[in-house]
Write a structure and sequence with these properties.
Strand order of the largest sheet: 2-1-3-6-5-4
Oligomer: single chain
CATH superfamily: MoaB/Mog-like domain
Structural class: alpha/beta
Strand content: 15-25%
Order of helices and strands: EHHEHEHEHEEHHEE
Helix content: 40-55%
CATH class: Alpha Beta
Largest sheet: 6 strands, mixed
Number of strands: 8
Number of helices: 7
Shape: globular
CATH architecture: 3-Layer(aba) Sandwich
């Protein structure tokens, strides 16, 4: 099983003004795959806080996959991609390209997502949109390639229908 952390980035969620349902949509999308959600946190749109969690989960906890949701749009407070770029060692541009490509088949607004993906150590970090629907659809767009990508990043063996 690949160990997953879900980091919700939301000022309103952090202040208790909005319930975070996006992490529930992501958990649902991961069911049935070789994924186990082992960490969850909600932080405001503050790059130092985002970077702290990404570093802890990658470096200390050794999570295989870190999914962020929120902070990928165009508003001035949306800084998740910038924070992610500061902590990853190598970007993986094909994953967000695939998410935007699939998203564009449903809405032209997908072109406004600035999410990035990258590797830090043996962790793959992937930025998703903040809305439950956008996050789930973006994750579902890359789910077919995630187990293989994670096996390359982590060194954990994985085959279709079989994982160690």
């Amino acid at each position: 099983m690949f160990r997953v952390g879900i980091l919700t980035v939301s000022d309103k969620g952090y202040r208790g003004e909005r319930e975070d349902t996006t992490h529930l949509a992501l958990r649902e999308a991961l069911k049935g795959g070789p994924f186990e959600v082992v960490a969850y946190e909600l932080v405001p749109d503050e790059p130092p806080m985002i970077k702290r969690v990404l570093r802890l989960w990658a470096d200390r906890d050794g999570l295989d996959l870190i999914l962020t949701n929120g902070g990928t749009g165009l508003s001035p407070r949306d800084r998740t991609p910038e924070a992610t770029r500061e902590v990853v060692e190598r970007e993986v541009p094909g994953l967000p390209e695939l998410m935007r490509l699939k998203g564009l088949q449903k809405t032209p607004m997908a072109a406004l997502s600035r999410g990035v993906a990258g590797v830090r150590g043996r962790s793959l970090i992937l930025n998703l949109p903040g809305s439950p629907r956008g996050a789930r659809e973006s994750l579902e767009a890359v789910l077919p390639v995630l187990p293989h990508a994670l096996s390359l990043v982590t060194g954990k063996a994985w085959k279709e229908g079989h994982h160690e």
